[in-house]
Amino acid sequence: MFAGVAVAVGVGGFVANKVIKKKSPPADIIDGKAIAATIRLEIKEAVNAMQAKYKKAPGLAVVIVGERKDSQTYVRMKRKACAEAGIVSFDKDMPASSTQEEVLQAVKDFNANPNVHGILVQLPLPKHIDEQTILEAISLSKDVDGFHPLNIGALAMKGRDPLFVPCTPKGCIELLDRSNVEIKGKIAAVVGRSNIVGMPAAMLLQKRDATVTIVHSRTPGAESIVKKADIIIAAAGSAEMVKGSWVKSGAVVIDVGTNSVDDATKKTGYRLVGDCAFEEVKFVASKITPVPGGVGPMTIAMLLKNCLEGAQRMYAP
Ligand SMILES: NC(=O)C1=CN([C@@H]2O[C@H](COP(=O)(O)OP(=O)(O)OC[C@H]3O[C@@H](n4cnc5c(N)ncnc54)[C@H](OP(=O)(O)O)[C@@H]3O)[C@@H](O)[C@H]2O)C=CC1
Ligand SMILES: Nc1nc(=O)c2c([nH]1)NC[C@@H]1CN(c3ccc(C(=O)N[C@@H](CCC(=O)O)C(=O)O)cc3)C=[N+]21
After folding, report:
1. Is residue 201 within 6 Å of ligand 1 at its C-beta?
2. What are the CA-CA distances from residue 21 to residues 9, 251, 287 (Å)?
């Protein structure tokens, strides 16, 4: 935000009024990496307690089909995070040529394995495999991604709570809660309506008594809608589309977008940017998450949390 500050400037005995545009102080950065690290420690303690009491550790099965580099990176991060928290990983790496039947069988095997408490099938799957069929085959009680239609249905219903809430939207809410941002009674805008981020994020916000508008690619006048919001969750997958001018002064901005843009100065040749133009928005918002280091690490922490909760339900219902 630019606050107009009128100052009197004396020029050789002549005083003119001049407006100097003064930038607001930058927003507080919501440090998702640090918050996720705290949560991962909390999970580790709970896993230790479970070991002591039941001689059991939570188990997470991660199924990855194909060789997409980004998927492999995410899956590697998830497995490492599991190991650090004392959660046992069950790995199923399948070639891109795997048939739908083979992937279904992998899910069924994990459904039947009593040491597996959570099953995650990394998305996207290769084109020839029907994602919905695979996601619906995951046992409801092991659906740690929360993508099963019955879990999503419960999220949408008043008075019902799903067994598992999808990790990324759950991480967004956790960031708001742990940053002392009140949700109740606030106006919220969610940019994006995907099954895995935008839609469940909107449903969670309205469950917490926010008034929510969902903005998508066919929304006319997105800027003026987003500008009314006290809380913005940006999940469009469009690099830096939410500009400073889209944001109400003092709004809280949660940036889910993880877009790689070419950058010759980086060793990797690219860098990650969010869906918000961070360098502009940080002078308008009161709080903002960075990319990387914001929502991404929370997604993994929430996955571990869902897996722990799944195991706790099995041993101590
Ligand atoms: N940090 C994390 O843990 C995670 C990050 N992500 C990131 O979040 C982003 C969104 O992911 P995901 O939901 O899977 O993406 P999808 O592509 O599935 O969905 C994007 C949504 O945004 C909408 N959209 C796209 N462009 C615009 C636009 N210009 N204006 C308004 N709405 C727009 C689309 O509208 P329509 O429905 O009309 O097509 C769609 O609803 C990506 O950058 C992804 O990498 C995703 C998961 C986890
Ligand atoms: N079944 C399924 N469940 C998912 O939850 C799922 C998925 N499929 N497919 C892909 C998306 C994407 N996703 C991310 C997880 C962590 C980071 C993350 O930790 N990002 C780091 C940076 C990572 C880097 O440097 O590359 C950060 O933002 O700081 C990002 C994105 C989970 N997804």
Report:
1. no
2. 14, 20, 22
